[in-house]
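User: structure tokens for this one?
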Amino acid sequence: MAEQVVFDKPKVELHVHLDGAIRVQTIVDIAKRRGINLPAQTAEGMTRRICLEEPATLTVFLSKFNEYMHVIAGDREAIKRIAYEFVEDKAKEKVIYVEVRYSPHLLANTKVKPIPWNQQEGDLSPDEVVHLVNEGLREGEKAFNIKARSILCCMRHMPSWSMEVAALCKKYQHEGVVAIDLAGDESLNCEAYPEHRKAYEEAERCGIHRTVHAGEVGPATVVKEAVDVLKAERIGHGYRTLYDRDLYTKLREKNMHFEMCPVSSKLTGACQPDFTRHPIITFMKDKANYSLNTDDPLILSSTLHLDYRIAQNLMGFSEEEFKRVNINSAKSSFLPKEEKEELLYSLYEAYGMVQSTPF
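Assistant:
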């Protein structure tokens, strides 16, 4: 049965995790090649193991990565393949520009040894991972005629990785990497883990763009820290910003961009399950700057079309709002100025707005 599409026009996606957007069949194929035993031997069986069907907690959601990450992490062929297939899948959703994020250390299968201090080992180096992902994305771009860039993630529970992530962002900032991100447990703040702040200071010094997961399940103070301490240019999720009306007003006036993920927010327990009362509706009514994204479509068993369909059917989104959202997403992308203008022109042309919308 064909999936219902409510906005069959070019789209921009800014918040999606590479390791949360893998095809289940690919996991099964790679496990077979590597001789790794899975709890289920078919794609259907692994889908039942991996995918959430009912709202859960963020902890339960994150535990799903343990079902398959050991199959992909540390394997050169697998990492390049998932990057290539990711671009193909986004092209099918009529995404013409995507920023995909991942932790180089997690895909490298980096392990921290207790002795000596902070010694790390892994199946691949994080640098090799970035190179492989870049190759897969570039080949996908050529094959499917879309533009894909990447964002490298620091992990809140692994502050020892953050400066290396910043260094990798700097090394590859002209080869497809457009920003740094901070993901993970929002209770682990920068006061307790100053390494994250240092990494973001280095990123800002080197002209590297900055986004931060904040206000997904943590309080509005995490959003404030992201903006004031880490100098975030965009906020990942940010639903709890509404709990601090002064902060919300301030960020809206600054045109801060919020990367929002409707289906994800329900199944991770970040927001109440009633989509008709979702925080995104407030952002929509206030004409705030935000995007619609999938986050982790593998675990959520979702597509970008599903997020758009829910926004239209349960949140009151119109086609004009979808156009506004994608134009704002393009404007808030981390592309260089010339490429951003090209992307915007492509959207204006597809939306029939070329003559009415000057740059």
